[in-house]
Amino acid sequence: MATSSSRSCLQYLLHLAQDNLDFRFPEIKALLALRAKSFRPCENFKEQSPFWRLDGLSEEDVRSVMARSVCAKSAFELWGHGQTHSELRTSLLNYPPEKMRPFVQRDSSYRINVYTFNKTLLFTDRIKRIDDMEYLPFEGTVSLKSPQHIFCLLEDYGTDPNNIPEHPNYIYFGRWIADGQRELIRSHSVKNRHFIGNTSMDAGLSFIMANQAKVKEDDLVFDPFVGTGSLLVACSHFGAYVCGTDIDYNTIHGKGRSSRKNQKWRGPDENIRANLRQYGTEKMYVDVMLSDASKPVWRNAPMFDAIITDPPYGIRESTRRTGSHKDIAKPPDGNYVDSHVPVSQAYHLSDIFTDLLNFSAHHLVTGGRLVYWLPIYRPEYCEEMVPLHPCLQLISNCEQTLSSHTSRRLITMEKIKEPEELDSLAHLSDARFSPYQGHNAFREKYFCGLNKRCIKEDSKPDSSGK
Q1: Is the pLDDT of residue 423 over 70?
Q2: What are the helix (H) ranges across 34-144?
Q3: Which of 1, 31, 179, 251 has its CA 20 to 30 A from that of 384?
């Protein structure tokens, strides 16, 4: 049989999941970048489509992407395509026979599946679709249970469930190569996780963040707002060593009230390490530390391959940092005693992002990535509100809608140079950096929009006309 290395530069088809649409392109692009490959779509590429045709890849490239992607469902070596079955037939008959030959020989077994997007076909119609492809040069035997090769006929009926056409918009046929990692969303669901909190990150989004950060085996990944460690779980799955900090003593030490229903207090083994142990990646756990993200506690050197985090927005978790606006009297003996629960003060969102970008510029290795969530008040959003830094290049900016008036954007940045003396103050002198001061009022705008919606709903007459 021909090796996959000798079958490079064929055309491949990705079947994408229809959720988190804004995150699919950056994830696939980042995973290809791990293979030093560029994203090369074919003509008439539509980012919102469930099917993408890609050029310039080898089968190893495609398998590597599918071994990590939670946005892609399946990948195929594309043999033919067209707007009609007649065009598909012509395309298949023009496909080079030498590329088909290794998979249609007499001593092989195969199966053909029929998949329709946005439409359900009767079983008899599926069988007819398969019978109509008798022109293909299959010489092997059909095996429905354990075939050596699986082929798929895929019909795309568009994305509007209220306007399904009688005939497909486009048709593809190809050899199945691999499935994506959608199963990780279920197996790592926070519903079944040992240690969770009010803001534990959704499993699917955690893996998307790890992929966009290009986290790989033996990387060192840091989360400065680690919480219950959902992002550490995802990164450790890909073989990275993980660590983090948080200002919340109870969360770091797994103490206090439980977030689970019908459970008052956290158990003795409810902690971040236990989460990694649950998924068999405890050996990748470096440690977590009680620390204020606004205070410099690390030696000034690049050490992290990726920084991935979800800073607090002031909604479910407060935005606080240690310190006080009051004058603190110096004790007579001249020694300060740190309290177990330090005095805290407000930590404005603009300051959080300034500190986060400055920290990343100093502590990421060159080429390392920062991936974080930025809360947005949608009526006022513009691209200039995304924080910038001279040492960090913006790679992608994806939106997840939270409500009619709020959303959060997943920002991915890559370190392109080492910081110079004035870089940490760039946000004060550059006019492009000032608009994100408006993030400081996100909490007030969030609840203001919520109250307006509630008032509007309350003002509506009920069904009885009262």
Answers
A1: no
A2: 59-66, 85-93, 97-100, 123-131
A3: 31
CB 281, CB 236: distance < 8 Å = yes
Whole-angstrom distance, CA of residue 227 vs CA of residue 221: 15
In terms of C-beta density within 10 A (0-12 exposed, 13-18 middle, 19 or more buried), how is residue 259 classed?
middle
In terms of C-beta density within 10 A (0-12 exposed, 13-18 middle, 19 or more buried), how is residue 222 classed? buried
DSSP one-letter string for 231-257: HHHHHHHTT-EEEEEES-HHHHHT-SB
Q: Which residue has tokens 């927005």?
A: 313
Phi and psi at residue 125, to the nearest 5°: -70, -35
Say what the pLDDT of residue 256 is: 84
- Residues paired with residue 383 on neighbouring β-strands, in sequence order: none
Neighbour-count burial for 70-83, b at 16+ CB within 10 Å, e otherwise: bbbbbbbbbbbbbe
Question: Which pair of tokens denotes residue 439?
Answer: 């993030």
Residue of 84 and 445 predicted with greater confidence? 84
Measured at the alpha carbon of residue 259, what is the angle toward residues 257 and 264, in degrees to the nearest 5?
A: 45
Structure tokens belonging to residue 10: 């064929």
pLDDT at 330 (0 to 100): 52
pLDDT digits (tens, 9 = 90+) for 199-240: 899 999 999 999 999 999 999 999 999 999 999 999 999 999
Could you tell me if 137 and 171 are in contact, meaning their C-beta atoms sit under 8 angstroms apart? no
Which residue, 325, 308, 196, 214, is CA-closest to 261?
Answer: 196
Residue corresponding to tokens 């090796």: 3
CA distances (Å), origin 339, targets 224, 292, 323, 327, 423: 22, 14, 12, 16, 35
Q: What is the mean pLDDT of residues 273-298?
A: 94
Residue 39 has pLDDT above 70, yes or no: yes
* Residue 149 CA: distances (Å) to CA of 1, 100, 103, 130, 282: 12, 12, 7, 15, 37
Residue 387 or 150, more confident:
150
The total number of residues written for the chain in this structure:
466
Q: Which residues pair with 408 in a beta bridge?
A: 375, 400
Distance CA 16, CA 154 (A): 12
CA distance linking residue 338 with residue 173, whole number of Å: 67
Return d(Cα 111, Cα 105) in angstroms, integer. Answer: 13
Give CA–CA dist 365/454, Å, rounded. 47
How far apart (Å, rounded) are the C-alpha atoms in residues 99 and 139? Answer: 15
Model's pTM, two decimal places?
A: 0.87
pLDDT tens figures, 15-33: 999 999 999 999 999 999 9
- C-alpha 31/C-alpha 180 separation (Å) is 12
Instruction: Give the C-alpha distances (Å, rounded to integers) separating 242 from 233, 237, 287.
Output: 8, 10, 7
